[in-house]
């Protein structure tokens, strides 16, 4: 019994860490994670999670494809079977960016910058689950999670010798794809590239490259979850996210790896914003985003640096505490998002699911991907919308009505 107890506790910590990896604050759907007690049912569920081990890419170092601190990159692979034996889902891990020496030096001492600190096993849930009742269309595919340790959405190629920093995201991407091709991905008859947050941005950047790995006969599509970061004006009239992206692009040397169709007429920082990339992506692309993305509200629209008097403090943590003028400001952000996808949405090959929730990343959490009370638009949950689009069962371009009309949301409340 003692061994079983410590096994359940260990699994619980791994699961909790994976949640915090996506959400660096204490949060949950309309609750706080500050009081996380394992009830008997929850412990049973954690014990049933699929844990997948870390594989380091041993030939990556010879290609200069290393994490910020020079260690080997890695991924987690769970093999497919049956009808999914030749189908591949590659998921790009998210986790923000580093935009200067200080933040990158800090980052290289974490799992976001070094494989020395990466979990040796992680749980596969949501779109990565191996259970048909939790992941109906992709459960028996070959499913991969590529770990994120470059701080530049897998797009940089440079270094800072004085600070002992390696910015090799593009090389990590290439080395990982080459390694996966030798593991059987070259035989894929269908493939989906996905990612959430910074991984969702990376999915947009690399979507056409991913398509280029396969023959024309292979069905290849891309899914960006919470990757539609907007070049928006914050509450102080500044452009906080653009300033941060300036640092990422300038320090990491991403210009040569961004799509030339964009950099030929816009500056490199503008081409790190998805709104300037999505219309030119040739491969079918699905955008899954909340209209009130909680990360963008906290870090881009109303960051503490833009709110010295704390007027937005409560609203930033809990949408229910927003004043009417604050909600009106957020409605303006939603309008900006809808305007940015107009050209993209005209293509029949693309898909959309824009729900009016205060959340961030919905494919990798089981409760938002596919469960009894998952978020819906027009009575369709996210997993089925993505599946319908990928397999051409139906066209999917759904946009929610403005807040507060959707009562199916799993809104995040920060403690």
Automatic annotation (TrEMBL):
PANTHER family the record matches: NOTUM-RELATED, PECTIN ACETYLESTERASE 12
TM regions (residue ranges): none
Function per UniProt: Hydrolyzes acetyl esters in homogalacturonan regions of pectin. In type I primary cell wall, galacturonic acid residues of pectin can be acetylated at the O-2 and O-3 positions. Decreasing the degree of acetylation of pectin gels in vitro alters their physical properties.
EC number, UniProt record: 3.1.1.-
Entry's family note: Belongs to the pectinacetylesterase family.
Gene Ontology CC annotation, any one: plant-type cell wall
Signal peptide start and end residues: 1-21
Organism: Pisum sativum
Single annotated GO MF: pectin acetylesterase activity
Protein name: Pectin acetylesterase
Pfam families, alphabetized: PAE (PF03283)
Entry's localization field: Secreted, Cell wall
Domain of life: Eukaryota
GO biological process, one term: cell wall organization
Keywords: Cell wall, Cell wall biogenesis/degradation, Hydrolase, Secreted, Signal
Chief place where the protein resides: secreted
